[in-house]
Amino acid sequence: MELVVHKINGEVTGKKVQLPEEIFGIEPNDHAIYLDAKQYMANQRQGTHKAKERSDVSGSTRKLKRQKGTGTARSGDINSPVFVGGGRVFGPRPRNYNFKLNKKVKQLARKSALSYKFKDEQIIVLEDFNFSEPKTKNFVSLLNSFKVNGKKNLIVTASVETNLVLSARNIQGTKVMTADSLNTYEILNAGKLFLVEGSLKKFEEILA
Questions:
Q1: CA 160, CA 178: separation in Å to the nearest integer?
Q2: What is the topology classification, in CATH, of domain 2-45+99-207?
Q3: Of 3, 33, 36, 44, which has fewest CB within 10 angstroms of its CB?
Q4: pLDDT digits (tens, 9 = 90+) for 126-154
Q5: Domain residues of the chain, as ranges?
């Protein structure tokens, strides 16, 4: 499993890298991908939704009319859900949507997502680089070199490259992440996956 290494201007360096088959060449497990992506999206939810129920509504608790003899249904106070302005029945309450997922399942999901990207020829390997200063123009030039500007892209680095992150943060649809913070959702959400050469060793340490 070989891929050529590119320069940031799109040219081929002449080098090739060997991708570990146990990470980029496995039989993808769709259910593991589903669980990991579901957990990621669940973790993004604040869970602060709240509707006012009967006890939360501000209003008099006086009984509106006598219990019997009116010819209509009995009624209690004005806060009842059957009246306009009353409380909501079984409304949403604050809750935590997080759930546990085994470490091996998460690893399998990430390897499955990377294997899908390799099969679909959506992985591009870049030689190690960093910008001398944070400049969006330099990053746009990189994207234009591979004709992916305006599309969803994910750049994976071995460690935090501050100038690179700052250069990319104003470009819609493009993200820069380190190999150890990468997750299944971000891998599949990206169109092109750019792997900086040094990040491949991190993948072997984390997922092999």
A1: 6
A2: Ribosomal Protein L4; Chain: A; (3.40.1370)
A3: 44
A4: 888 888 888 888 889 888 888 888 788 99
A5: 2-45+99-207, 48-96
